[in-house]
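Reproducibility note. Readers wishing to regenerate the assembly model reported in the main text can use the exact inputs given here. Chain order matters: entities are listed in the order in which they were concatenated for prediction.
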Amino acid sequence: MDKRLTLEEAVDSIPSGATVAIGGSSLSRKPMALVRAIARSSVRDLRLVVDVGGPDVDLLIGAHKVREVIYAYVGFELMGLAPHFRRARQTGSIAFEEWTEYTVMAGLDASVKRVPFLPTHAGLATDVLGVNHSFRRIDDPFGGGALVAVPAIEPDVALIHVNVADRQGNGVILGDGHVDELLAKAAKRTFMSAEWIADGAELQGFGRNVRILRVYVAGVIEAPWGAHFTGCAPYYRADLAHVRRYLEAATDEAAFTSYMERFVAVDEGERLRNLGGVEDLVERLRV
Amino acid sequence: MTYTTDELMISAMARGLSGEVLVCSVTAMGALAAHLAKRTHAPDLALLATPESGMEVVPMPTLTLGEFLTTNQQGIALSMEDVFDAIFTDHFRIWINPAQVDRLGNANISNIGPWERPRVALVGSRGIPEDTSHLSEVLYYLSSHNRRSLVEKVDFRSGAGYGEERQADLGAHGRPSTLVTDLGVFGWNERGDFEVRSLHPGVSPETVGERTGFVVEIPAEVATTPVPTEEELAIIREADPLEMRKVEFAPPSEAAERLVALYERERQAFHVAQEQQRHHAR
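Running the prediction on these inputs yields the following structure tokens for the assembly.
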């Protein structure tokens, strides 16, 4: 089955209020073209799930698309804190639930395995257990002491970006995998953007780097530079100069409005031109 | 040879690593400490170039080229499952730099002020709860030892320190062991008492007292942190010629700008190194 569609077709099928899980990790391989398409759309009140979030979560909060965020981390690494996330946390304008890196994986894995929860020791004797109202503290039924029961996370939709995909929805990840395979398996529907679309034989040439299986994928979108301004190893690095530009714009309402008009409200082709063109990106970001 | 505080800290941090364990690189300071340890007393360390992959590459102290080193140097690719399995089985070490550490060794990277309505929302607990419930050694460092970073009680426990709750729920698993700051090497004994192990050269007990948010007992005879040897300094400087390690000591307002500049220079340096490699290969 040919599952190719446009960014808009994928996003228009996401109902307001949906639980949307986003792959990648802080400044690495975030499905930013899909995130931008959501920011442009009429969808709203999303419940976001991220393990390690960054520009994805921050941009969608800034675009007023989010009612709740489930996260282990949201930030821009050494570049700074996430401005919209930070403001929303400090003013309480939307809801948040703090998880941890493994517990997000365990929640997704529980969903994949069709069990209500998975147990772990992670979180015991920390304040995460106090502020996370989804976790339950339980006793080991075999007599071994306290555990945290991590409930299944069941995303309605997962969004991931990969290096290469075929039309049927098999996906190649050449860099770090993050939690994208788990997301694709746990979500009811997965939309996968890719730097380029290969035919089946060409895709199978990637051997063990084919990490996303088509049975889990509902739609495939060709989106060159679709992770920008995060990186997509080994094709291009995160664009730290643009990260800085984003962080500066996000501290000021007027500046953010003009940032959004120039780099988010436009289609991906126009966005690349507004960035100074593909040649400049290649020059600065190819390793 | 003269040295700087970052180099002294890296040398002290390197001594905290030993054996055959995965060492994850999230910061330049942590990456360099692991590299130095491997080049000196701990040759069996398995260093990662990123938080989750690139085992057995020649590390460059960076958060950004790691994945590219995995490809270019054919580093061993790991998965997130591999990383957490190594944490749970105690085959893993990491130097963590929290925003706050307290007297009992609790660590905070989540928020300043109450979690529900923080004065400053930081980033979220990330993987620290996993480390502090499983590893037999939990290693912290602070680039600036002051009353805001070393406090009586953290605003939020992202990482579990000592105390009754930890004793009942986790026992010894994941107990903090060592804290290296710009003033000295500290740690906790088996009972969870904060202790001074050494002060850096030129640091007085009074300075530590003034810059710590709780009362520190400093023994009359306290050791001085060994200064880095010429060999150690050479290893650090060769691995980090662009001085990425110093970005962590810059004020946040300058750190981003400096990182952007270093990022581009690092890419260029990497290309030159690759060119030379190709030349040698011919």
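We highlight two features of this model. The two ends of chain A are 35 Å apart (CA to CA). Chain A has two domains: 7-98+154-228, 116-151.
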